[in-house]
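Researcher: Let's try something more involved. This one mixes different molecule types, so please make sure each is placed in the same coordinate frame as the others.
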Amino acid sequence: MPNILRREDVAFWLYDFLDLEALSQLPHFADADRSVYDAILDSVEKIAEERYQPHAQKLDANEPEFRDGSVHIIPEVKEALDAFCEAGLMGASFDADDGGLQLPYLLQTAISAWFSAANWGTSGYTGLTVAAGNLLAEHGSEEQKNRFLRPMIEGRYFGTMALSEPHAGSSVGDIRTRAEPQEDGTYRLFGNKMWISGADHEMSDNIVNLVLAKIPGGPAGVKGISLFIVPRYLINDDGSRGARNDVRLAGLNHKMGCRGTVNCVLNFGDKDGAVGYLVGERHHGLQYMFSMMNEMRIGVGLSAAALAETGYLHALDYARDRTQGRKLTDRDPSTPMVPIIEHADVKRMLLQQKAYAEGALGLCFYAARLADELRAGDQAMQEKAGLLLDILTPIVKSWPSEFGLRANEIAIQVFGGAGYTRDYPVERFYRDNRLNHIHEGTRGIQGLDLLGRKVPMRGGASFKTLVGEIKGTVKEASGMADFADLAEALERAVDLAAATTATMAGKAEQLGQEAYLANATIYLDMLGHVVVAWVWLRQALAADGARADGADALCDGKIAACRYFFRYELPTMESQCALLARLDKTCLETPAEVF
Amino acid sequence: MPNILRREDVAFWLYDFLDLEALSQLPHFADADRSVYDAILDSVEKIAEERYQPHAQKLDANEPEFRDGSVHIIPEVKEALDAFCEAGLMGASFDADDGGLQLPYLLQTAISAWFSAANWGTSGYTGLTVAAGNLLAEHGSEEQKNRFLRPMIEGRYFGTMALSEPHAGSSVGDIRTRAEPQEDGTYRLFGNKMWISGADHEMSDNIVNLVLAKIPGGPAGVKGISLFIVPRYLINDDGSRGARNDVRLAGLNHKMGCRGTVNCVLNFGDKDGAVGYLVGERHHGLQYMFSMMNEMRIGVGLSAAALAETGYLHALDYARDRTQGRKLTDRDPSTPMVPIIEHADVKRMLLQQKAYAEGALGLCFYAARLADELRAGDQAMQEKAGLLLDILTPIVKSWPSEFGLRANEIAIQVFGGAGYTRDYPVERFYRDNRLNHIHEGTRGIQGLDLLGRKVPMRGGASFKTLVGEIKGTVKEASGMADFADLAEALERAVDLAAATTATMAGKAEQLGQEAYLANATIYLDMLGHVVVAWVWLRQALAADGARADGADALCDGKIAACRYFFRYELPTMESQCALLARLDKTCLETPAEVF
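Model: All components are placed in one shared frame. Result:
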């Protein structure tokens, strides 16, 4: 059985749930249709199976190593990346004008999910390059795009995003890397960057680092941050590779998981300063970086969801194959043992994984569709998609990171002792997935972003739009005999979430912002559960609509997972709302000395 | 700051919470008093810090290796184990008649917690030896005790427990290893064992494997299992080491964590059969094994709790040291950054870890005290302790495994990216702790044991005794102004748990045993939360009673964690009870084909 992703599931998400074909009616995407998408997915499936998955375990056991002055990575990684680039996949979602295929981001997201699930470590290099490329596509000058973006899309250059410094991670306004302006219009950068994935290796002709730094004399904090292109090698006027830039590897980080993606400490300006090219205007760097944050954060949630789903598929295979024990009603030890999938608790573990993994994937794909609408839709579509994406992004980033990890934890449990060994990949998925709550804004940061910024912004317009969408689904489902009970439960949940949100805002005026935000992380989980319940109901409705005549295991499975989620998971939001509504200050007020 | 365990916390648990001094009034324990205990704890603390903790990371990175015909383990492990044995710690809880110190198991449990927290991998060898020794002490003949147990207590021989086989883990009745009786009264064993920790190495003169096997012609299933001593080396009549027995290493398992404890696949009888000595009577092997299961399962929960606590202490250190960002009320980027412990969400993460880790440790220590009462108390004490231990054991094993792991997950989050690297030990604690839900009976098995056996057994006597104890604490606390609200919440929770249990039993008659047990794992979590809330309230009362004049950070911390648990954690049991009370069949009835 396929165990990276299942093609029929992906087809369900793209076509039945999210109607990719309707999206391809938009002028921006009119050059391709389902036959093109399917041909690309054929090729993705083949490359993932033949080039990515086979070396995933070897890469994990042989992480990139710095010796003799350079970073060594097992050769299978470059072979896989070459296959990816040769298939044109680096340019999938870039505009044709920039050398891309101009395909929907929704399709690109399905592609990314496939490679993340097959081999997180190897897929990291292209994911970063696409993210950096998107930033250049949006904010780079024509010259910068020609010089840097085109070779990235061609797969000759790879990209990185360099924000953090040893003393400044979440607190990005406190970075110290400085960029000294030069007479020729370039800058010289001096400083240190930390946690930079993909920033040193020999697998591409060049590495395009997008670096946040401060120009001396600018405003303090986040308002004084500018964005620079700092390539590993300078580029000659004819486009050929020039001298080594003054950016050097200071060391590698050795991680619990995600070991295949090299993670670097970088020094800028050990000698004369690293040559950097300003992107856009001075002091607008963080704003440019954040203009891509929605897609970057969808990418994190997506990789968490993809790892959860592949873990689920591996556990499912094992549960169908492994025999152990007998039905509770069978006390005769001479009868043969049954496959463990026959045990109620194993079914529970499988349903829980499926509900988490496919709820998370459905959410991420939905967010990707919104990103397409924001990019290519008409004005009304853009407005609405923008409002929804604003409020959903912290959830799309965090919910899969929380519950996708839990799914991987359970996948190990289905395997028992075997799952705890490195003979099976589920322990690797679990280690890989633990990163997702940390990078691109920690879980705590996402909670503050959701409750502190996104919920109140524009008079609560994003929140109201989300509630309106959920109510639309409630209305649709409440008229259908098979789903009326779920519609009612979702309506209760969204009403409770809305009432709780209003209560919190009311009390905040009296108790202050610190109390309002003290449980922001719990708010994030709470609203996430409501949103995923909504996504599940929409998926169940889509499955019901797509059902072939007679039995249809895929549709039955989606509906079973939806019911599981409503019965076992959604009710946890009730006690969370009680806590949130009283602006519980237990944590806020516990003095540091008593821990 | 000490980061293995804190001595003042251990003193709190032993003396303030569980009154070890009162226990030492029992005749069985009368030879030692607090001055002895404290001297032993001094020595434990020193050995853990100087001999165990320093090589924990090295051992994790250099797991035991099979080459040139033997298992190689870094020499620091044997040095640490030698120090442990030289301090007499292997015999701490064994009877003086068998060569032990005859100290309370409660003290032994504190010792184990310290070494598990310092270095799980190294501590595994002695933990297994003590467990195997306990089995021999209880069921071995005098000759077997002299021949095998005494050298184990002296630290010359190590022990193992060999139950599982490649095809039979949870389903132990299906083991196939056979023991052929010989004319001289010994047996010859043939078969394969899997997941045997500590079964092959060169660190002790001998390894005493306690092996489950079937004597041909016996009953099928669990009723035909016998227990054998199968030493790695035969022992000559003068006690010297004889020939190699026919038990051979077939391979090592390579785990995600707990890497330091060698885990083996064993072949018995590749040649003439492995010589084995029957323990007790034929076909009673599983019963003997299970007579020690309470303590073995307390040991698993304890190691999960100890890893959680040391992870918490490491995270606490980091949170006090690492600066990042500013108070929400401070928008001036030119002010210095604050230690992250000042942020409400970091306090939440610390309280959550503390509530999980110290709730779990309190629970395990309480269970250890019950084991002492069962062993050495008067008849009434024994009766009650036995009833409580029966119902608590699955919770003591599982609750720390579930929530201790969660605590380690959060410790990584407090560290951020740094916690995801192997430069800090929190990722190792997380990997180590993932084992605990798997060995000595999986989480699913514990749920079935609790709901299927322990709750209904003896007309519900265990359950009623537990409820009675909890109500006793409710009564005590309800008269105290500071704790009346907690008493009320606990009473509500235990009443709801009892009502739910009764409802389930009532419906089971109609809907059958499969439906009754379909959500046994959720019942395990639910009742676990009630029990830990009770343990927390008892700890809070003990802290309140032990409070020194004026400020007392330790006591304030216990009470803060207790309040956190009641406000943030306990309420989750309400939605679980709703699910349980309806005997939800969503999982049970989902067909295997739709996954």
